[in-house]
Structures are given as structure tokens and as C-alpha cells.
Fold each of these.
Amino acid sequence: MDSAAFASTGSGFKDPRNLSFERDWIRRAVLASYWIVIILALPFWWHLTSIQRLALPTSQVRSQIQSNIVFPIAVQFDTSIIQQNPSLNSQVQTLLRDSVINEPGRWRGIDLRLQDRNDEVASSLYTVALGEQTSIAHSRHLWVSKTDAQSATRVSSILSDLIAPPESSTSHSQRVVQYSDHYRLAFTLLNEDATPNRFVETWDVQAALTEFIFPLMSQLSILHNFTVESQVQYHAPLAFEPKRLTLGDTEASGLTQEDLTVFINSAEWTLASGVSNDPVLHFVLFAPSETHSPMNIIDSEGRPTNQSSFLLPQWGSIFILDNELNSSSLHLSYNDLKPVFRNFATQLAALLGVPPVPLGLSMEGSFLSDWQLDALLRRRALQNVQGSQDTLHSIVKLVDQINNMPVGQVVRDDVLDALASLHEAYRTAVASPALALRWSSKALSMASRAFFNPGMLALLYFPAEHKYAVYTPLFASISVPLVVALIRDFMAWRRGSQDDEGGEIK
């Protein structure tokens, strides 16, 4: 039945062509409004979903890899030692030059020069003079005895160990903690079991810290800032059962080398009392229970050793309270704590990478010398520069490989700040290793912050396939009806145009 039939009958139905919402221009206006909204919304959608990807200074980063920080060092021989051995200067210079050629990694970043008394004084100057015995002083002086002054090999070996201390390869790198501007030092007295016969309630920790730890911290303040805390715990059970030993008429507990690696019971011991993001170095004085006392460290053959402490790489040090101390007392006096904190000071220096004094060489004073501090400053600055270069190179490499990784203004500014800090580190290394360390530390901090920026990591594991999986269900249900309606209306308009042209021809 056509529309004419609807119009002629009295059924009450209206002709569809007379319905307002079925008129062609209204239907097309409604359809066009949808498409207009979509077209106008496209720029906003593109802006909101697009990834900001600013250009990084790739060429500068890659050129930094070829750059090296250089510390000029001058060694001056005093007139007294030259008179004792006139050829010492030239012989030592030859031996040191051979050492630089044979061990380039050890001398990396060091520009060593030997100069006479009349030469221009350099900013980093060390003096070698004749003395009663071979020793080092805090004022960057090396006193050489008359016997050692006759041996150029001995003098060159001492200078090599002082200026470029050798690293014990893997063990040294695993022991030393990663560089940080701030460290927290946690000193803890642990009672395995607070029984009446083996219980330490208090200790003179403040006096021991003042005597052994604070002077070392004061000298290392040029590299780090320290926060010190102490605590006493009364229940710290071991996670394993020590080996039982028979020592004459008494029984003892033995700790094997395997036991030392799992000595820390992290599940039940609360060693860090504060809340901070700074790295923590722990120094634990462990008081064994009456059942496990006395406790000894044994060797691979099961024999007790004289060792009372051991070091856990990049974690801290543990000292076991032995029978030499008055273990039945409720209080540890300053005299009782002397061997403990003297050991803690040595272990702290080892954890922070302080180079040891060469064998056979005495030192004026009881703490660090300027030779050791300068060597540590140079080594830490070199490590920071190398770490900054590697991190910046990794950032550029990742951005080049992952096309959808965003690079915001914050990341770009951090990369530029890291490059500027590296440049300052190179410039100040000529005058001051301390300033070079400060700039290199800032460069490493900026590079690390750029690498771990949350904006970069957000889309690191979000490939393009995931976008298609998200957008397809959302837009397919909307776009398909609109496209079909557009095609149908276009076809209807085209048929109507053809009918109108045919009518005009007739």
C-alpha cells in the first residue's frame, strides 16, 4: 500500500512524507550535526591523546661519551731528597710513565706531572721530602726515609698507591656502596634473647661515637652528609641454628661462612627505626643468648678464628659480643666499646670506598689523610661522570628505539641540566676535585631523574596494539551507524536527483 492509499483511506494514518521528522532536510541536518560534532572534536581528541615528544640534545649526549674528566696532579720533589738522590726525579718519572702505559684503567682521569722546586706550582700539589721515616702527613706531604730515597722503585710504588690506589677488581666494587649525597648510619645493640644471664641493657654509645665515628664523619663531610641513629633491641632470634663446637671443656656455637651470608634475620629484626629514602649503613653489635654463647666464627675446616666481626657488602658490619667483654653486665662501658667502634670505623671507611694506606707506610694522625681523601674524591667523581654518561646515553637510545615514548619538558630540562653539570665537572676538575665531585653528583642525579621520570615510564610498555584494542570497541559502535546512514542518505539523494532529471526530460 503506497502513500496515496494512506491518504485516501480513513485509517487515521498520516503520509510519512508529511511527518516533520521524515523530511529530507531535517534528516540530513541531524546526520550532518553528528558529523560536524565529530569533525570539531577531532582536534581536541588529537591534542588530548597525542604524546609530547620534545627533541633531546642527542648530538651533545653522544659527544659526552667521548669526553673524559681529567685531574691534573703535580708531584714536587723537595731539595732535601734531590740532594740525597739526584737522579730520583727522572727515575721515578720513567717508572710512573711505564705504570700509566701498562695500567691505563688505574690511571684513568689522572694527568700526573713531576716538577722541580722552581717550576710553577699547580693547584693539586703533593710534596715528597726527606724524613726520618717513610710516612704521610695531612698536608699532602710524603716523608721518605734515607733508605727508601735510594730506591726509585720504592718511591714510585708508594706514589702510585697513594695517587691511584688499586682496586681489588670485583670484590672491591661489590663491597663499596653506591655513591649518595646522604647516608644514614644505624648503630644497633641486638640482644638475641634478653635472659638474665646474657642481657645488655645500656651502652655508652655516645662516647664511642664521639671518639671513633664523628671524627671520620667530619673528614668525609666533603663527600657525604650523615645522619646517625642508635637503638637497643632485646629480642633478635637467629633464622638458623649455629653449629655446636667443643672447645676443651666448654661448648660453643660456630658460624660458618654460609651462616654469615644469612646472619641477618630481616623478617624479625627491625634495624631501621627512621623513615627516609637515604641509603642506610647498619652497624650491629650482637649479644648471643646464653644458649649460643660463646659464639665464634669458624673457618672452612671448622676451627674457630680470632675474627669477631664481619662485613656484609653494601649493607654494613656486624660485631659479635664475645667472652672478652663483661657479658654478664647490664651495661657496656666506653672501654668495652672501644674495640667494637674502632672496628666499626674501619668498616665504615671500607664501605664508603676509602683507599687504605699502603703497606709499610705510617700515617701521622689516627684518621684519614689528604692523600686518601683526594684519591676518594677523584674516584667518586669518575664514577659519577661515567654513570651520568651511561644514563644519558640510555635515555637517548630508548627514545630512538621506542617511538611512542613521551619526552616532556621536564625530561628535556633534566637532560640539559645534566649536560651542563657534566661540563662544569670537567671545568672544575682542574682546580678542585671536591667541586668536580659536587657537579658530577648533580649530573648523575639529574640524569637518573630524567631516566626514571614517571611520564616516560607510563607508556614504555604500552604498544600501539593496545591503543587499537582500546579505541576499536569505543568508536566502532558509533562510526558504523553514522557511516551507513551517510551512505544511505547519499544514495537516496542521488536517486532523487536522477528522478528529477528524468521528469524534466519527459
Amino acid sequence: MIGTILSSVGLAWYVIVWALGAIGLCVARSRYGKPQPRTAAISLPPDELPGVSILRPLRGLDCNLSENIESSFLQDYPGPFEIIFSVAEEGDAAIPIARELMRKYPRVEAQIVIGEEIVGVNPKINNLIRPYRLAQHDVLWVVDSNVLSSTSTLFNSVRLLTTPPPAGQARVGLVHHLPYAIYPDAGIGARVEQAFLCTTHAKMYLAINAVRLGSCVTGKSCLYRKSDLERAADKKRKGGKGLVLADGEGGLAAFGKYLGEDNMIGEAIWEDLGLRHAMGGDIAGNAVGSMPFQTFFRRRVRWIRVRKYMVVASTIIEPLTECFVLAILGAYLLRRFFSLSPWLTVPLHTITWFTLDCVIFHTLAHSSPSPSRHRPPSHDGPGVAFAKAWLVREALALPIWAFAMVGNEVGWRDNGQSYKVQLDGSVRLAGAGLI
């Protein structure tokens, strides 16, 4: 009796995961299936558009850095906007590139803030806090240095953020953009990262946001109001839902005790303010460049370890959303209920899964801010190299997850520090480390 109930639950889960994949594909085709316009369709006079402060934290020479940050200068936005770059150290190699672009576009208001301020353990927030305070406008667009944006992204995002909601719905409090890997080199690490971002991650990210089960945000490219963030941080610290923020300064600084600040900010705006999230048809082009496999491995381990205390349930069931684990589960259940041979169901499952991923990959490529014709290979695939990387990614999903679940130490890029993730999801310095 118990076995039948558990098997029935397992079969239902198998169907649900496939349904989420189908939802992800439908969203991808409807939202990203056509090339995004390179200029925004202007329908409002400039004086009705809010000003925007674009905050771009920089550290070193990321892949495609000059083109990435130049895309902020090229935004086709008729309202006022400013760009504030920030670097932690005076000698950072990104500074000359930012200054050259400032000379190239003198009509765009831009500045560089040099020197971080320690308000927590999160290096990104420490780098952002001074620009956050200096921002002239309430609407903030926080964009990572390795992100390339289309020229219409800002206008389209502001439109989503400011459009009055339908009757009975809350207004939009945060606009975020789907990360999509561009410019991977030929190395296996970069290709595996491409396969992950452009298939599994994209598929589930789109599906979860479509069904609105909860907050699901990555911080590569996000728009929100500074005033909303201040209110959300204040409300959360006074007994709001979820995890507790840091004491002391409010706003962005209050999230400085977490490495997953994007998840926390999204949760605070969603749960504590009751505001909606929105995704438009613009993509955050995530320039991958050269990435050794060990770097990919460490990144995946880091984010699983950071998330496992923040979003416990989804992290625990993550292996049951992966192709090969689900194939084994499905083979057992389909044999039990329908007498179907695993020699049929496992290959059919895997081939169909890979085909779905390839279709999503190609569909999203239509809206990429960097078409392959500009500087191949921006996102060439899926081909033989992509298929190999896909197989490696799927085969290692469970071992990487298992390794991540038994440890608590993580690193941050190449700063030589390691951090210990604590039971409340926050982190503390733990000395030097590699993960």
C-alpha cells in the first residue's frame, strides 16, 4: 500500500517535471522566439519617464568587458539616466576601459567610484554600497560586469516596472533578465557552463517564474526601486518573512551578510512588500570566455551551498529535476505501472530531453544581445561540442550536488577568501580556500 502511494507520487512528480520543461519552452517561444528590436518603441514623452541609475560593479578584465559596459552607454532610453562604475581597488584593470568609454560618450553622465566600503561579507555589496548611496535616481539597474545588454533593455524594463497593474494585482517591484551564455571558448568548462545556462537553468528559471510559485531571481541584471529596497529591508528586519537581515544600516547594506543577495532581495520585495516580479523579452548576455572546468565546478558547488539554507526544499529536490536521475526514476515507475521496458524508456527520455534543450537553446538565441554573426562563436551550437558538454553537465549534476551538500565552505571569484555558510543562510569569513 505504502509502496503504491510512493510510486504514484513519484509518477506524478515525473509528469510535473516534464510539464515544467514544456512550460519553459512555451515561455521561451512566446517571449524570446523573435529577435528583439534594437531600438525601443518610444511611446512616452521623456518627462514622463523616471530617471535611472545604472550601477555596474567591476573587478578585473571579464570576458568582453568593453562591449559589455559600453552597452550601458548605448541604451536607447529617452529619460535621464546615469552610469556609476565601482571598483574595490585603485589598480583594477577595468578602470582604464571604463574611463575610455566615458571619454567616448561624453554626453552620457557617468562616473567611477574607487574603493569599497565594508558593510558585510558580500564583496559585491561592499563594491556597490557607495554607488548605491550616490545614485541620483530612485530606479536602480544593477548589472554585472560580464553582462551584455540590448539597446532596448532599459526602456523595456522601465516600462514593465512602471506600467499600472491590472485590477486586483500588485504592481511590479522587480524586473530581472534571463542569463544566457555568450562567447564561450572551446574549453570544456566554458562549454559546460554554456550548456547549463542555456538549457537546464533557462528552462526551469522561465517555468518557475511563469507559474509564480515564489521568488526566483538571479542578480545578473535587475531593476528595482531604491525606495522599495529600503522599505523591504526595514520590514524584513522588523519581523518579516524568511531569513533575518543584518543589523545596522538599511537598504542594500542590510543584505551584506549573504552571498546570495539576489535571492534575498527578490524574496524581500516579493514576500515582505507583496510586489510582483517581471521578465521582459530582453536577455542578459552572460559572457563566459575562458573557464577551466574546475572553475565551473567551484561555481556550482558555491551556489548550491549558498542556496541550501535559503531555499531548502528546492535545493533538496534538485537532483530529481535532472535528466539522468529522472530517467532512472521514470524507467522504474513506467515499468511498474505500464510494463514498459527501461531499454525503451531511458533512451526515449534522454533523447527527448536533449531535443527539448536544443530547441530552447535555439529559441533563446533569437533574443540574444550578441548574434553569432557579430563575433563567432558567441553562442554557436548545439553541435558536437555542445552535445559533449551537455552530456558532461548532466552526468555530473548529481555528484556535484552531493559534494556540495556535505560541505559549507565557499569562495568568491579569485579574492583568495573562503566563507562558511551558516544555518541561517548567512556567511562568515573562514580563511583561505578554493571552493
